[in-house]
Design goal:
Helix content: 25-40%
Shape: globular
Strand content: 15-25%
CATH class of the largest domain: Mainly Beta
Largest sheet: 5 strands, mixed
Bound molecules: benzoic acid, fe (iii) ion
Number of domains: 2
Number of strands: 11
Number of helices: 7
Structural class: alpha+beta
């Protein structure tokens, strides 16, 4: 019978006949943890109702492009935990981070060396890098998909009409040595969406909503595990308090100031400019 002492066992037992063993395991653990949580904090009826109201509002905030539940998972650190335990870096491979909600439009294919800055605002920047495997062998022809916020901290999809669609997005194909390079602007830190229940939660907790400045990079190629990661700007505010816990030290790079008119001209950049290099180590399927 259901009573306070045995509540978790009784409810877990009701799932004992779940045919799928993994679903049974997950449901049983969920019941165990949920009951322990209620007992741990001594949840009141009003608090339970407030929680239901919060989750209902979270669902109501979701549509085709807005996923407030993922945002909730992000600020609770659950997204990064799932990402981290399922993509443990081995053999020196590059660490992963969350994909985030702004990869909602396909990046346009661009040639190596192209600019992804369709506006011309912000500090010009040269991004170079190389995709290699754990043996440091190049991954020729790797697809390198990049997207980033602008110098004011906005993605193109947040400023429809004000900036060209696909601004600061590009899909590059690495050369025969796995190298890639493109022109851009230095991204700025920005707040995650705060106009919904998750923003209210952060406000109630006295937490800020900012993400440290970064460029999103997703690398894929036949025979390698797709890597979703960020390149963080060294010195950016919020590197030590990113709102979604996405920062990993190994992903932070200096965007160095360069004053070199010859090099600027070769790459089609104004002088001076900033430059960053990012070697990306991917894992071969079934190995390092
Ligand atoms: C992003 O980096 O684009 C992002 C990630 C998680 C939540 C909001 C934004
Ligand atoms: Fe982002």
């Amino acid at each position: 019978m259901f009573d306070e002492e045995h509540s978790a066992e009784v409810v877990a037992a009701s799932f004992a006949g779940t045919p799928d063993p993994r679903l049974r395991e997950v449901l049983t653990a969920l019941v165990r943890h949920a009951h322990a949580f209620v007992k741990d904090v001594g949840l009141t009826g009003e608090e339970w109702a407030a929680g239901i109201k919060f989750l209902t509002a979270t669902g109501q905030q979701c549509d085709d492009v807005r996923q407030e539940f993922i945002l909730l998972s992000d600020v609770l650190g659950v997204s990064m935990l799932v990402e981290t335990i399922n993509n443990r870096a081995v053999g020196g491979s590059t660490e992963s981070t969350v994909e985030g909600p702004f990869h909602q439009v396909a990046s346009p294919a661009r040639a190596l060396g192209d600019t992804i800055d369709l506006v011309g605002d912000g500090e010009p920047c040269l991004v170079t890098g190389r995709v290699v495997d754990s043996a440091l062998e190049p991954v020729p022809g790797a697809a390198v998909d990049v997207w980033q916020a602008d110098a004011e901290g906005f993605y193109d999809v947040q400023r429809p009409g004000a900036v060209p669609s696909r601004n600061l997005r590009g899909l590059f194909t690495a050369d025969a040595e796995g190298r890639f390079w493109f022109r851009s602007v230095v991204p700025r830190f920005y707040p995650i969406p705060t106009d919904g229940p998750v923003g209210a939660l952060l406000g109630a907790a006295g937490r800020h909503p900012y993400r440290a400045a970064h460029i999103h990079i997703q690398v894929s190629a036949p025979g390698v595990r797709t890597l979703t990661t960020h390149l963080f700007v060294d010195g950016s505010p919020y590197l030590d308090s990113d709102a979604v816990f996405g920062v990993k030290d190994s992903l932070v790079r200096a965007f160095a100031a360069v004053d070199d008119p010859g090099r600027a001209e070769r790459y089609g950049l104004p002088n001076p400019f900033r430059e960053v290099d990012f070697q990306i180590v991917v894992r071969r399927d079934g190995g390092g």
